[in-house]
Design brief:
Elements (H helix, E strand, L loop, with lengths): L24 H8 L19 H22 L8 H14 L3 E2 L12 E4 L2 E3 L13 E10 L2 E10 L5 H19 L5 E2 L1 H14 L2 E2 L5 E3 L6 E5 L11 E2 L4 E4 L2 E3 L5 E3 L7 E3 L5 E3 L2 E6 L2 E4 L22
Antiparallel strand pairs: 1-4, 2-4, 3-14, 4-5, 6-10, 7-12, 8-9, 11-16, 12-15, 13-14, 16-17
Helix pairs in contact: 4-5
């Protein structure tokens, strides 16, 4: 049985990923009328679906980014400033011949994001000094040979409150629940469904104003990854070869945020209650999801956060 003839807005039969009307439609119509056409140009590769060489490039970028995370965790202690953390990130990245992706991105002036306590994301490093009981999300993205590795962790600064432990645990568990929900060709909305289940069970809320994203040679691209179940982006499928981030932001109180009107980056919880986030870069393979930013010394799947554990391990 033959496949049906594609419509103008359907994906072209050649596998280019382009619409039929912008790819082979004219050639097919000319051929049907007996007009001989010159050979078609080689279809342009779809940058959203990586071949094996490109997947290996992403693996190298993500491996360095995980190495950077393991390096920085030892410095996150009471008394260090967020600006000092940023300098450590910058120096380590440059010394290894790579580039901090955030530096200069859309006018951002730092090499990482440091989001403390009630800051949801995009906290700009500066003079703030960490104190006992803080939680801080350190968000790192490295460019290695043109490819981006991206991840974040919420780190405990000394002994923290039970509430801080609970929201940190919830974000971590929600991220892994979303990863475990993935199968080749599944819809994006399965990510949001899994995250919402975990957050609701813990009595927390899921931020709706910031998404995960596709990643590769570009920092941000399709697919858009909302962390709640919705249809406008949620119906896109996650096919083998696609790379994307899962990065649930979980709030103790309201899910709503507001962005600092002075730096235009730092996003706070609207009620100034705690927020926590974890992030991994994921490659969808033919067998299922591959977590590309696993650290050697950070929390692994199933980890339980306590105040008695060694610092940030």
């Amino acid at each position: 049985m033959k496949d049906r003839k594609p419509g103008p807005n359907d994906a072209c039969w050649c596998g280019s990923g382009r619409k039929y009307k912008k790819c082979h439609q004219a050639q097919d119509q000319a051929g049907a009328q007996g007009v001989v056409q010159p050979p078609a140009a080689t279809p342009r590769r779809d940058p959203l679906h990586l071949d094996e060489e490109e997947r290996n490039s992403m693996r190298r970028a993500c491996a360095f980014n995980a190495q950077l995370m393991d390096y920085i965790r030892d410095y996150v202690k009471p008394g260090i400033s967020t600006g000092e953390i940023d300098q450590l990130v910058h120096d380590y990245t440059i010394q290894h011949g790579h580039t901090p992706a955030t530096l200069g991105y859309r006018g951002y002036t730092k090499s990482c994001c440091t989001s403390v306590n009630e800051v949801i994301c995009h906290g700009v490093p500066g003079t703030q000094v960490l104190k006992e009981g803080d939680i801080i999300n350190v968000d790192l993205t490295s460019i290695v040979d043109g490819w981006h590795g991206d991840q974040s962790e919420t780190l405990l600064v000394g002994a923290v409150s039970d509430e801080a432990l609970r929201v940190t645990q919830c974000s971590f568990d929600a991220m892994w629940a979303a990863i475990d929900a993935l199968t080749p060709g599944c819809k994006v909305k399965e990510i949001g469904r899994a995250i919402q289940r975990v957050a609701k069970a813990a009595g927390f809320s899921v931020v709706k104003e910031f998404f995960g994203h596709g990643i590769g040679k570009r920092f941000h691209q399709r697919p858009h990854i909302p962390h709640f179940a919705e249809n406008s982006h949620g119906n896109e499928t996650l096919d083998p070869g696609m790379c994307f981030t899962i990065e649930p932001m979980i709030n103790v109180g309201s899910w709503r945020s507001e962005v600092d009107r002075f730096d235009n980056w730092t996003a706070y919880t609207i009620d100034r209650k705690l927020s926590a986030q974890f992030e991994h870069t994921i490659l969808m393979t033919e067998k299922g999801p591959e977590v590309m930013t696993l650290t050697k010394r950070g929390p692994q799947r199933g980890h339980k956060f306590t105040n008695s554990q060694p610092a940030n391990v």
